[in-house]
Amino acid sequence: MENTNKTKVTEFVFLGLVNTPPLNALLFLIFAVIYLMTLASNATIIVIIRLDSHLHSPMYFFLCNLALLEIWYTTTIVPKMLANFLQERKTISFTGCLTQLYFFNSLGGTESVLLTVMAYDRYVAICKPLSYLVIMNNRVCLWLVAVSGFIGFMNSLVHTVLIARLSFCKTNKINHFICDIPPLLKISCSETYVNEIVVSLLGVFLILGCFLLILISYIYIISTILKIHNAESRSKAFSTCSSHLIVVTIYYGTLIYTYMRPTSSYGLYQDRVVFIIYSAVTPLLNPFIYSFRNKEVHDAFRKILKNRVRF
C-alpha cells in the first residue's frame, strides 16, 4: 500500500529487526523467553510483597506497583512483536497502531513519574526517618501512584491525538517493530513541526523534569548518608538507594536518547537496540536489581516457600 497520492493509510507495515526467516525464528525464541521471564519475575515480586506483612511498607508498595506496571508495559508491545516475527508481512491496523502508541507511552510516562516518587520515598526515609510513616502514610502513597498514572496517561493522550491528525500518504512502512512517536513522525507526509515541539516540551517537563527531581533528591540523600558516622548504617543506607540509581540510570539514559532528539537524527539500527533495552530488557532486570538482591525479599521468599512445603 505504498502510495504517492493522498490515499489514506489504513494499516502500517513494520520493517522489523531482520528480514531472514531463520533470524526471525531465533529472535522469536529470545524475546519469548525474555517476555515470559519478565512476567514471572514481576509477578513473583507482587505475590511475595502481598503475602508477607513485613513488606507492607511504602517502599514495597511502590515496588509492587512498579512490577505491575512492567507487566502491562511489556504486554502492550511484545505479544504483537512476537506474532510479527512469525509472519512474512508484519502489519498493524491504523487504529491498532494508535492504541499501541497510546498505552505504550502512557505506561512509560507513568513509570517515569513513579521512579521519581520512589526517589522521594527514599529521601523521606533517609533524610526524615522519624517522620517517615507520618509523611508516607497510606493515603499519600495511593495519591502519589494515582498522580503518576494521571500524568503518564494525559501526556500520552496529547501525543496520540497529535499523531492521529497527521496524514500518512508517502509510505505505510514503519522502520521499527512497534508504533512509536519518532518512526511515525518520520514517515508522515504532513508538517510535523507542532508534534516535534510538543515532544520536546513535554519531554523537558516529564523526562528531564522527573530526572532533575530525582537528582535533587539524591543530592540530599547522599549528603545525609555521608554525615552518618556508623559504617554499617551508612552502608545499609547506600544499599537501599543503589538499586534505584541503577534503574534510573539505565531507564532515563535510553529514554533521553530516544525522545530528546530531532526526528531527523532518528537512526536505523542503533535506535532499535536502545529501544529494546528500555522496553524489553529493563522490565526484566528491574525485579532482580530491586528485589531479588534484597535481603528482606529473600527472607520473605524463603518463609513463603517453607510455609507452602509444610502445608
Describe this structure in words.
There is one protein chain. This protein has a single domain (11-310), classed as Rhopdopsin 7-helix transmembrane proteins (Up-down Bundle), CATH 1.20.1070. It has eleven helices and three strands. It has helices at 21-51, 58-75, 78-85, 94-127, 132-135, 138-164, 181-187, 193-226, 231-259, 270-292, 295-310; strands at 11-14, 91-93, 173-174. It has a three-stranded mixed beta sheet. Helix 1 packs antiparallel against helix 2 (58-75).
CATH level 1 class label: Mainly Alpha
Broad structural category = mainly alpha
Cα gyration radius (Å): 21 Å
Mean pLDDT across every amino acid position: 84
What's the quick description here?
The protein has 311 residues and is mostly helical. The protein has helices at residues 21-51, 58-75, 78-85, 94-127, 132-135, 138-164, 181-187, 193-226, 231-259, 270-292, 295-310; strands at residues 11-14, 91-93, 173-174. It has one domain: Rhodopsin 7-helix transmembrane proteins (Rhopdopsin 7-helix transmembrane proteins, Up-down Bundle), CATH 1.20.1070.10.
Keywords:
311 residues; 3% strand; Rhopdopsin 7-helix transmembrane proteins; 11 helices
Task: Summarize the helices and strands and which ones pair or pack.
Elements: E1 11-14, H1 21-51, H2 58-75, H3 78-85, E2 91-93, H4 94-127, H5 132-135, H6 138-164, E3 173-174, H7 181-187, H8 193-226, H9 231-259, H10 270-292, H11 295-310
Parallel strand pairs: 1-3
Antiparallel strand pairs: 1-2
